Amino acid sequence: MNWQQDEPKVIDEEMLQQAIEEQGPQGQAGDIAKKEGIQYEDVLQLRLDYRNILKIYHLWHFTTITKLQLDNNVIERIEGLENLTNLIWLDLSFNNIEVIEGLDSLVKLQDLSLFNNRISVIENLDTLQNLHILSLGNNAVAQLENVLYLRKFKNLRTLNLAGNPICDEEKYKIFVTAYLPDLVYLDYRLLDEQMRETANTEYQYAIEEMQQNELQNEQAMEAQKINNEELQLHKDAFVEFLNGPQLFDSMFADDPDAENLALLPGIEALLESFKSKMEALCVQIFDFGLTQHAQRTAEVESFFTCSREAVTDNQHKAAQIAAEFESSRRQKIAEMQQITDAELLEADISSCQEQANQLSETLMSLELQLVDQLEEIIKDFERNVSDMVGGFIEYVQGIFAQCRDLENQHHEQQLEIALATLEKVVKNELEEEIPEDVAMLLVDKDTVTNAVSASHDTHLLKIDNREDELLTRINSWMSGLLKSIHDEEVTRNRKRISEIENYISYVTDELEDMRLSEDN
Question: Are residues 148 and 103 part of one domain?
Fold first, then answer.
């Protein structure tokens, strides 16, 4: 073949159109398809082999494609496939690919061929859990242990690694068979029971140890997944890290004098009491936040259910009316095509036009009813959500005010203890020995007062910031949700009006064409 002598190409519109026409319907059906045009979204299979393609490009519109051939090209990188999420079969064999990449979104992929490339590491396939067939023959995979990566693919039944350096390893087949127990075919051959028994005997203890490690890893990952889901729920409720002493700890973590002040006599007990009360208040916010989140979620779901039902019911009525009109119109058009009397034809055309105008009024009236209905539903929802958010904010502000009161009390008590300790130091009445860093604070009244006040300011700032963050986020959530609802309703309404106008325009144009034909 002389295609390799051509200049390397990038997939462009011209190449795609040519491929679609070549592989699309033939004969009369092909002529119709060519005339009307085939939408990329309608293409299910596409061959782009033997085209000297260097760069994958312009494929993002093929969102429904299930089978794609890109074999026998000069492709160096796997890219541009992100939107092809319905791909089941992908052939990238006989290219110049060095790294497996760019496949993360192809979660439905079952059959992947990377045969005859330059790949040295089996990697970056984690999301392809539906993978059933994998061909990596004639590549540069040299590490036998790299096969262990494939243990995570529980649906993998056929694997081709023939022609890789690892195949030269003495125990290659036994190793692969042992560590990939669900495999049925390896390098085009059925794995028989004798091979499986030999492999299990050879690697029994190593596999048992690996299985134990994998189980522990799976359990750790599952625990992490649960933690992440819980944290996301807490964030959605705007109360993350308020279910314990986290806010209290953060107040002192950024307080440079906290550690030294805590060493003053009597402060330890004071801190324990402060922490306990502060944590209890935070937990109140947390619990109330989760309850409110559940109520808001239920309200949102109820709103969308109600909205969808209203739209569906309205669309059903409109569709029935339009279908009856269309059936009658087609019958009338067929009858009019047989009329030879010009006056009679004109009367029928005028009658049809009047019926079309009446249909337009009826459909527009239905749409207006829906707009009014949805407006009421949206208003009720806005009122309910605003009340919920307002109630939550009022409650939260009340609890944070109590947090500030606690901090003020702690500040006053801490200052009192610090000044009393200073007085004892001055009078040399302090019985216990104090650390040098604490002694540096107990130089004079101003130094002690400034340290305690700075600590107090830091704590209040932390409380204020957490409150502001919570209020800002829940208000942003509400305003963003309501804006999106209004925007979507405007878009829906405009689209519906456009649909009605386009249909009436089509009917009018057809009647006008009949009138012109009669005149000619």
Answer: no
Q: Fill in the DSSP letter of residue 222.
A: H
Q: Which of 298, 284, 469, 492 is nearest to 385 (CA)?
A: 298
Query: Nearest CA to 118 among 97, 142, 103, 137?
Result: 97
User: How far, in Å, CA of 291 to CA of 282, rounded?
Assistant: 14
How far does CA 189 lie from the centroid of its chain? 40
For residue 148, what are the contacts with CB-CB under 8 A and spacing of at least 6?
179, 210
Q: For each successive 10 residues of the chain (520 residues), what is the average pLDDT?
A: 62 88 58 55 91 92 94 96 96 98 97 98 97 97 95 96 95 94 94 91 89 90 94 97 95 88 88 96 97 97 96 95 92 86 87 94 96 96 97 97 97 92 80 74 87 94 97 97 96 95 92 75
> Do 175 and 215 belong together in one domain?
yes
Q: Output the pLDDT for position 514.
A: 82
Domain with 436, as residue range(s), is 246-519
Q: Which two tokens stand for residue 118?
A: 């330059």
Q: Characterize 398-431 residue by residue with b for buried, 16 or more Cβ atoms within 10 angstroms of its Cβ, and e for exposed.
A: ebbeebeebbeebbeebbebbeebbeebeeeeee
Looking at the DSSP bridge assignments, the partners of residue 9 are: 53
Residue 159 counted as domain residue: no
Residue written as tokens 């048992």? 208
Q: Are residues 83 and 177 both part of a single domain?
A: no
The count of structural domains within the chain is: 3
Q: Give me the torsion for CA of 23, 25, 27, 31, rounded to 10°.
A: -100
Buried b (16+ CB within 10 A) or exposed e, 1-34: eeeeeeeeeebeeebbeebbeeeeeeeeeeeebe
Q: Which residue has the tokens 């009525």?
A: 317
Whether residue 160 lies inside any domain: the answer is no
Using the structure block, give the residue that is written with the tokens 């036994």: 174
CA distance 408 to 402: 10
